[in-house]
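Can't attach files on this board, so I'm pasting raw text. These are the components:
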Amino acid sequence: MDYVREIGRKSKEASRSVQFLGQEEKNEGLKAVARELRQQMGYLLVENDKDVKNARAAGMKPALIDRLLLTSQRIQSMAEELEQIAMLEDPVGKMECVKVRPNGLQIGQRRVPLGVVGIIYESRPNVTADAFGLCFKTGNAAILRGGSDAINSNKAIVKVIRDGLAKEKLPSDAVLLLEDTDRAAVTEMMKMKEYIDVLIPRGGAGLIANVVENSTVPVIETGTGNCHIYVDESADIQMAVDIIENAKTQRLGVCNACESLVVHSRIADKAIPLIYERLHQKQVEVRGDERAVSIQDGIRTASEEDWGTEYLDTIISLKTVDSIEEAIDHINRHNTGHSEAIITRDYDNALKFHNEIDAAAVYVNASTRFTDGHEFGFGAEIGISTQKLHTRGPMGLEALTTVKYIIFGSGQTRP
Amino acid sequence: MDYVREIGRKSKEASRSVQFLGQEEKNEGLKAVARELRQQMGYLLVENDKDVKNARAAGMKPALIDRLLLTSQRIQSMAEELEQIAMLEDPVGKMECVKVRPNGLQIGQRRVPLGVVGIIYESRPNVTADAFGLCFKTGNAAILRGGSDAINSNKAIVKVIRDGLAKEKLPSDAVLLLEDTDRAAVTEMMKMKEYIDVLIPRGGAGLIANVVENSTVPVIETGTGNCHIYVDESADIQMAVDIIENAKTQRLGVCNACESLVVHSRIADKAIPLIYERLHQKQVEVRGDERAVSIQDGIRTASEEDWGTEYLDTIISLKTVDSIEEAIDHINRHNTGHSEAIITRDYDNALKFHNEIDAAAVYVNASTRFTDGHEFGFGAEIGISTQKLHTRGPMGLEALTTVKYIIFGSGQTRP
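---
Top answer:
Structure tokens for the assembled complex are below.
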């Protein structure tokens, strides 16, 4: 695995200069890369076409081929995203909580880049440009490891990024692609603690579990969401139906989509038929507990396994409960720490839900689909953290930085 | 390992109520435990004596036996520490960055407990009370796993803490001791992701490496310190000598002690003899590079290995360099991300060192020994993080918390 270690070494080396680039240099670099993506569009489309042809030959599902496909419009969007990142405020260098201690030491906390960020992801090639942009903006070097399906696209995108940086005389090793798509190469990457400061896996539950299980590099876990909506006894049923439709069907395959409903038994007779009708119109299959099945024809019986399943598909589970306590208990047992919502008109229940649900984002009377860096006003997002350390919820630029204490002394020694 | 998993399950259960205790309840609990420690002092001394006798019989070194020993004075200090923790500001519940989005969603970030904190430590029994106190103050349940040497002391301290909590009708499972001191029990603990939210290893390099290597629970790495002092060309030599004496000898076995010196060649002839003389008076052996050896009799030749060694003993390494760049390079290559200092009168070099050294705490003209929660004004400390994720440097109460987004909606759906 000398090749993988060489990538690590080069990235660490690059991070030593990337960390000191000024805000202007970084922004000019991002804009230069955006220009380069537009200029080399033809090359990118040709290389992407190789991946798409291979995928078709291998019998990949149309939905997945669509994720893999680049079009001139999608390349335009990649370029625009980089230009938007250039316009965001740079968190690097901010000083926080400066204080003077009784002995005269001045202690400040300065925000600095993490160093080298490793990103392991699956077949969407736009992640390549995006991840580079966020890492570069925050003064980090990036090691990218995309899926084998997108290898030609990723190689081409990284080449173009490096061309853009080189034209601005910026260190092109700020981004390096692990071209070896072997599993052994990822395993090596997960052990390179001396070169990589943090690993961010982006993709399905299997990929994430593998990284969490095997990495000795610190990991930020992202993106599996078994999100619930609880329809409280006092809910505005019309609002509940609208929010459920939005949270389940506005986009099916995303981590902030709703996967499970919890309905208070006192409102079940009225609410479940209306919820079912709306979901049925949208071709969503509902799997419920016995009480739900007895209320509404067409609801299939859920198994225990359903409560823990992130479908990412036209299926939703439905559980009835006799109290808000039972609802909170059920949600805290089965959720993945992502996004949970209550629909209620009861003030105490709203606060209780906010307080007692253990998740990155807890909503009252709104769709779980809002858990997103852009929707939260961060301007960009590298993923959604479902862990509690370092950062939780949508990760903007600040999540790609750390702090260091800067101490100004005048000869102080400790008594 | 059913016993270990049962501890995990009970702790998770306890965390569900501990997280909601009010500030007053938690502070009363801490004070009650302090009273109980004083009242049951006799019992604690008897139990500790068993450990001390076993250690003596096993031929443990006097310095280590001293770390293990409890005295009435030390038990008093444990109680006072808990009373001090009770007086600190509670970070739990603070709302940060509340904002209203254009669609009317109000989004706030609330500071909340982590949940269950696991602490794996070695033979100092005072860590038992301290770790409980910091976790309880921040609304976390704690699972403690001390070393086998201190098992009788730790059992006794945990029993007394639980007695104190029970008297206040507070959940005594807020603290649980893993009494099985087998290696297999720790290994199981490191895999209990469903019960433990974060693991903090406190102890020697071997213990910490084992936890980082094998844990699937997120880890906060603490406390190995290969700390440097760089004596710049323009240094006030007298200040340098005083700070070096303090940083090396004020306390030998601690992570913020200085382990390695870097001296600019243009000041070496004047500075090294004075530094050597002072360290020699304190029985510190100096191991230097060829140039240092040629300047001062008594300096022994350092091996490559010396540059990376945390001695925790009366030994220090000394490297000469021809520029501040070479000094920074050497330090960034060999340090452990803990504390580094420059002694200088040169303004540009001071800022350059602050900027370019990659460590939790970077000092100009002060002793590395100040990297400590109390010295930084946090009032308490659970350890010193040498990693970049979540928290860096001395960890006070806030490091034992996380955030969650609290969203107030009025029916919003995502377009």
